[in-house]
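Ops channel
N.P.: pipeline sanity check, posting one input/output pair.
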């Protein structure tokens, strides 16, 4: 009897498929239960550094859990089983993004993305595979023809679904994709969109419905905490109130339309001092395509987007995100 139990356990371990993710009635279903991605974009870089580091993960997870966040979106694969295990232990899922050219590091151009899928496809922390991040703003990366990227997406999507049929494949598109893009990359199952339309994200729902019946989610949304100019309501300079007000309106509109989307990822967890200048201090400015939709000044100050600052002090918007996510239930 004991040997039979051990054999059964080993057999289950060998053929374990992690989690099962599917779409039913325009809802994400994870292991048979409805799941809405109450998300945050997560790319922690320490002061004075330019590369991602998970040294503060345990501290960060306390805040992430407090804010009601259940899913992280990362911009490059996490090749560290201990990090994935920590996420799983905390009950946090992660969307893994594959870049096109990451110098052969689990990227698409080298084909090594599939090695990552094979290595980690049974890990229960991983929720979904995502391709690129608003690459449609950079056709110069693809010989001047962005359709080359959509063709690559189609090939990669098919390869991933063969290797891991139990998860979804998505793409993070800069705002609304065209009908042609959707047609070329027809096997992509879910479309994520980075949407910066002032505080009116809901304007994309009817536009999306007109071109596709596939599910969508907000791969990025939100506001920064720096005003490059004064307005009638907000003063110039660092302005956490402007960020908090915008995020409240945005999340209210997105979550109240949860029948039309399967998740939202606020950009981002912590300020990124590496993005615009000296990584040892917080600079204004930075490069962000199509940033004129950033509330409430039309300018994306790239180092001021965190819901916490670089030292993990909560900004005003932290409680806005917390109130929205903690009080929301897809059921």
């Amino acid at each position: 009897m004991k040997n039979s139990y051990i054999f059964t356990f080993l057999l289950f371990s060998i053929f374990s498929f992690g989690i099962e993710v599917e779409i039913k009635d325009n809802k994400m279903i994870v292991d048979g239960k409805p799941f809405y991605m109450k998300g945050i974009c997560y790319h922690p870089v320490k002061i004075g550094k330019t590369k991602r580091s998970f040294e503060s993960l345990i501290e960060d997870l306390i805040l992430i859990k407090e804010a009601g966040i259940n899913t992280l979106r990362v911009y490059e694969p996490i090749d560290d089983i201990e990090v994935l295990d920590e996420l799983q232990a905390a009950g946090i899922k992660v969307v893994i993004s594959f870049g096109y050219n990451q110098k052969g590091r689990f990227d698409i151009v080298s084909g090594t993305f599939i090695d990552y899928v094979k290595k980690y496809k049974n890990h229960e922390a991983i929720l979904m595979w995502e391709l690129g991040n608003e690459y449609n703003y950079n056709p110069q990366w693809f010989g001047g023809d962005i359709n080359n990227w959509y063709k690559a997406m189609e090939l990669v999507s098919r390869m991933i679904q063969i290797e891991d049929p139990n998860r979804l494949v998505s793409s993070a598109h800069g705002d609304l994709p065209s009908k042609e893009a959707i047609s070329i990359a027809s096997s992509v199952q879910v479309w994520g969109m980075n949407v910066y339309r002032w505080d009116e994200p809901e304007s994309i729902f009817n536009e999306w419905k007109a071109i596709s019946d596939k599910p969508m989610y907000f791969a990025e949304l939100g506001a920064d905490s720096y005003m490059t100019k004064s307005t009638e309501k907000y003063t110039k300079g660092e302005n956490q109130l402007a960020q908090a007000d915008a995020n409240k309106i945005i999340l209210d509109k997105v979550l109240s339309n949860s029948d039309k989307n399967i998740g939202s990822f606020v950009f981002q967890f912590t300020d990124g001092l590496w993005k615009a200048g000296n990584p040892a201090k917080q600079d204004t400015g930075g490069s962000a395509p199509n940033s004129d939709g950033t509330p409430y000044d039309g300018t994306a100050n790239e180092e001021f987007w965190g819901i916490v600052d670089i030292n993990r002090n909560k900004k005003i918007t932290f409680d806005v995100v917390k109130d929205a996510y903690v009080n929301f239930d897809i059921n």
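N.P.: looks fine end to end. Residues 17-326 form a domain with the TIM Barrel fold (CATH 3.20.20.80).
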